[in-house]
């Protein structure tokens, strides 16, 4: 698997203004810049994408780019430079600041990853359309990406009802049809909320239609240890569960502040994961670093499988896998125990089998 944007051209602006704008947005997301500012560049790319190249060039010469909807002075300057075959100044700064590996460690393991099992689109609380997430995954060398928007109870994240998820599955089919021959598959998934009683926040009929399911706790994170343990064990024992997502729910940094780990019997929970063939997620978001190192080591010693996931909410965050790979390598996790090093067909067979 190629990494760190290595599949991107050495000079994206030479492919035109749309490529330059997308590269600017990607690098801003990689650097965890404000979503609103990033979106301006993605919106500008969407505005000029359908326009003939001659019209864009004429507007550059006439100085009328900003008359187009969604084009402001900052995005116009990127377009103007790219049309003239020059590197935009903003892109040069971002390349210097954010291009290249995000970590020093984990490089061998990162190269072994074939895909990512946890990602979000603008159908729930992500910032970009499904197709943009897929295009970026291809550019990064992914063989597959699992789309895992939230389930209905998580209303704050615009979780998907049965009707909306059904509609989304049709969109995934259309994206895969469009990308046929690219050596890539967008897989159907969900990040399903673990309910208070250990059930999963989606109908079993709907869950059965998906390729893979990540189950996570998002509410009552300060529940007592006995209750949280029982809740997580119920989800792990559910035959539809494939991956236990960000198991402690902690936040160690970021604009949402910090949050302590939930309390639960980790030995019992990870033992159940090993017994029921559920992978423990190593969540790669830098503000999560979940599980903590000591729990990764415990899950390792108990024989668990793992999934290293970006939990990306924007295309540029797909590269967060670097952080998870560094942690997994430091903990001595063998690549064979990481399910997203597996070929797509092996992954799907594992995710579909009865437990």
Could you give a short description of this structure?
By secondary structure, the protein is an alpha/beta fold.
Give the topology.
Elements (H helix, E strand, L loop, with lengths): L16 H14 L4 H14 L4 H10 L10 H11 L5 H10 L8 H6 L2 E2 L13 H10 L4 E4 L14 H17 L6 E9 L10 H4 L4 E5 L8 H13 L5 E2 L21 H11 L2 E5 L9 H9 L4 E4 L11 H10 L13 H9 L3
Parallel strand pairs: 1-2, 2-3, 3-4, 4-5, 5-6, 6-7
Explained architecture:
The chain is α/β, with parallel strands linked by helices. It folds into two domains: 87 residues, DNA polymerase, domain 1; 246 residues, Alpha-Beta Barrel (TIM Barrel), CATH 3.20.20.140. 42% of the residues lie in helices and 9% in strands. The protein contains 14 helices and seven strands. It has a seven-stranded parallel β-sheet with strand order 1-2-3-4-5-6-7. α12 links the parallel β6 and β7.
């Amino acid at each position: 698997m190629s990494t760190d944007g290595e599949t991107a051209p050495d000079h994206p602006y030479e492919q035109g203004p749309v490529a330059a704008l997308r590269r600017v947005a990607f690098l801003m997301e990689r650097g965890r810049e404000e979503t609103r500012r990033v979106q301006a560049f993605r919106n500008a790319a969407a505005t000029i994408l359908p326009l003939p190249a001659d019209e864009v060039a004429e507007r550059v010469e006439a100085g009328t780019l900003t008359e187009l909807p969604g084009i402001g002075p900052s995005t116009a300057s990127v377009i103007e430079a790219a049309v003239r075959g020059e590197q935009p100044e903003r892109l040069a700064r971002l390349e210097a600041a954010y291009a290249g590996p995000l970590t020093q460690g984990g490089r061998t393991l990162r190269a072994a990853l074939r895909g990512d099992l946890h990602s979000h689109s603008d159908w729930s609380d992500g910032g970009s359309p499904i197709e943009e997430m897929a295009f970026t995954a291809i550019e990064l060398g992914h063989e597959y990406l699992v789309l895992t928007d939230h389930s209905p109870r998580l209303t704050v994240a615009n979780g998907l009802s049965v009707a909306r998820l059904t509609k989304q599955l049709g969109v995934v089919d259309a994206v895969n049809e469009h990308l046929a021959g690219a050596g890539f598959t967008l897989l159907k998934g969900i990040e399903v909320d673990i309910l208070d009683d250990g059930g999963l926040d989606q109908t079993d009929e709907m869950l059965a239609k998906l390729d893979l399911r990540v189950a996570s706790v998002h509410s009552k994170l300060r529940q007592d240890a006995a209750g949280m343990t029982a809740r997580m064990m119920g989800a792990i024992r559910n035959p539809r569960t494939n991956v236990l997502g960000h198991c402690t729910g902690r936040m160690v940094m970021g604009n949402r502040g910090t949050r302590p780990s939930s309390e639960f019997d980790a030995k019992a929970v990870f033992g159940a994961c090993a017994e029921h063939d559920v992978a423990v997620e190593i969540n790669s978001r830098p503000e999560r670093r979940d599980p903590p190192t000591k729990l990764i080591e415990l899950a390792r010693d108990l024989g668990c499988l793992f999934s290293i996931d970006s939990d990306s909410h924007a295309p540029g965050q797909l590269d967060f896998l670097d952080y998870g790979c560094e942690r997994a390598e430091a903990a001595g996790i063998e690549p064979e125990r990481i399910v997203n090093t597996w070929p797509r067909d092996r992954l799907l067979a594992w995710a579909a089998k009865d437990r």
